[in-house]
Amino acid sequence: MPAQIIDGRAIAKEIRENIKREVQELKEKYNIVPGLVTILVGENPASVSYVKGKQKTAQDLGFYSVEEWLSENTSEEELLKLIEKYNKDPRIHGILVQLPLPRHIDERKVIYAIDPKKDVDGFHPVNVGKMIRGEPCFLPCTPYGILVILEKIGCQVEGAEVVVVGRSNLVGKPIANLLMQKRKPVGNATVTICHTGTKNLNFHTKRADILIVAIGKPKFITADMVKEGAVVIDVGINRIGTTLEGKAILCGDVDFESVKEKAGAITPVPGGVGPMTITMLMKNTLESAKMWNRLPNEIEK
Ligand code: GUN
């Protein structure tokens, strides 16, 4: 039987409507407006497109949003100064520096420079450490989005065999960690992480009740690698060409056409995990605004 196609856009829309309502309430009751700054260095087309999406969403939801678009040859020092400026700016509750950065800038220094209380990406080691300890913190947006998807589709995660393909700091490591935690409603799974050193990838992927793929290789996972009825979460966003109108043609890390015939449920690309990532960034920024204003929130419980 063909898989349930998981509509990430619909799930994201529902969450955004709730965020929008809360933003209006915060404004009316307390005159608080959540503030997000996005910082982009250079013109990487994928990054430009992601940042535009984040800016548009922030504006649609009624946030105070600032867009910093710096030239490719901005120095590390200039970028660190700019981050410091927003660390001190009381109108800003979330700072997002789009990755990857140009090679002459040390990504680690930049992440460390962001105030952990404004780190709505959840990349700062303070937040990563809290996440691993299972403490309230900013969760990284893509793994957070995956948790919400699994919850919304009613996926049985407790006791499931989860296989994560990819071990990046952005997705693989955090989602593997979160799903093995005793979190409710989504957690307590048995998690395996596969990577370039894995000897028999098929052996592992075919055992997965939930298969999460984040490797950046177009259509890498094929039907023969997937267990019948598995839930397949495709995190890849690969640009494999452009249309005559100049729009990017995207595909995931999973061969959607073949795998959808075998899986129980699958996220499409586009329209699966992508919209959730942006939405959870907005959620983190909203919670941050509440935290900075000493209102009950999900970051400091
Ligand atoms: N580059 C790719 N994904 C992300 C993300 O979630 N946040 C940031 N800051 N950069 C990214």
Automatic annotation (TrEMBL):
Highest taxon of source: Bacteria
One GO BP annotation of this record: tetrahydrofolate interconversion
Ranges of residues in domain Tetrahydrofolate dehydrogenase/cyclohydrolase catalytic: 6-121
The reaction(s) this protein catalyses: (6R)-5,10-methylene-5,6,7,8-tetrahydrofolate + NADP(+) = (6R)-5,10-methenyltetrahydrofolate + NADPH; (6R)-5,10-methenyltetrahydrofolate + H2O = (6R)-10-formyltetrahydrofolate + H(+)
Record key words, sorted: Amino-acid biosynthesis, Histidine biosynthesis, Hydrolase, Methionine biosynthesis, Multifunctional enzyme, NADP, One-carbon metabolism, Oxidoreductase, Purine biosynthesis
Family annotation (PROSITE patterns): THF_DHG_CYH_1, THF_DHG_CYH_2
Subunit (UniProt): Homodimer.
Function description: Catalyzes the oxidation of 5,10-methylenetetrahydrofolate to 5,10-methenyltetrahydrofolate and then the hydrolysis of 5,10-methenyltetrahydrofolate to 10-formyltetrahydrofolate.
Family assignment from sequence similarity: Belongs to the tetrahydrofolate dehydrogenase/cyclohydrolase family.
Entry protein name: Bifunctional protein FolD
Annotated source species: Thermodesulfobacterium geofontis
Gene this protein is translated from: folD
